């Protein structure tokens, strides 16, 4: 009986508190108006910028930004040469330190480098737009990935690179092929890019082989265990 009485008392207190905290009609109307002003309507949705203009009518519409290292500079020059051969236009080329974040946001950029040697790639990395560090692709592997308007400034980024210089050279060669195929006269625009080639050599984690159903289930269970075990492994 005492237990039931205590429950009733708590319930009554909660009801009274809720009644006292109830919004006035004026406050409710103001909050509803605020909510209405924040609604996203179909016409307000962010436009998809799946095409990245590099050259328009012989004029550069992008900059090549590379890590300040001879191998990455050489790969950047290979891309520059490919664009010039395809369109007759020579894109500007700068190191990652020479390009400010403000200038990067104001134009399309081709980025060569990874987390540790190009701060513009690092900025995308830390905001979960790309994943490219020294333990990702392996020595000969590479990635070509487009990032569409990451900062809401109306411009795209294309990451062309690898964890090592060897892979970055392969990435530049592959992107040169994409450039040659996409060029239309003195204009060049490339669509969505999602190219990933792994090399098991020098990766910090082994390349995953196809799993059996039993191995898959075990991996899922292990992942769930880590997720709910803070401080263990790569848990959230």
Structure description:
With 236 residues, the chain is α/β, with parallel strands linked by helices. The chain contains seven helices and nine strands, in the order ααβββαβαβαββαββα. It has helices at residues 2-21, 25-37, 70-87, 101-105, 119-126, 165-182, 213-227, and strands at 52-56, 59-60, 62-66, 93-95, 108-112, 142-147, 157-161, 188-190, 194-197. Strands 4-3-5-7-6-9 form a six-stranded mixed β-sheet. Strand 1 (52-56) and strand 2 (59-60) form a beta hairpin. Helix 3 (70-87) runs parallel beside helix 6 (165-182). The protein is globular, with a radius of gyration of 26 Å. The model has no long low-confidence stretch (mean pLDDT 88).
Uncertain regions spanning at least 5 consecutive residues: none
Largest sheet: 6 strands, mixed
Straight-line distance between termini? 45 Å
Strand residues, percent? 15-25%
Number of strands: 9
Task: Write out key terms for the chains shown.
236 residues, alpha/beta, 9 strands, 41% helix, globular
Summarize the structure.
The chain contains seven helices and nine strands; from the N terminus they run H-H-E-E-E-H-E-H-E-H-E-E-H-E-E-H. The protein is of the alpha/beta class and 236 residues long.
How would you summarize the topology of this molecule?
Blueprint: H1 2-21, H2 25-37, E1 52-56, E2 59-60, E3 62-66, H3 70-87, E4 93-95, H4 101-105, E5 108-112, H5 119-126, E6 142-147, E7 157-161, H6 165-182, E8 188-190, E9 194-197, H7 213-227
Parallel strand pairs: 3-4, 3-5, 5-7
Antiparallel strand pairs: 1-2, 1-8, 6-7, 6-9
Helix pairs in contact: 3-6
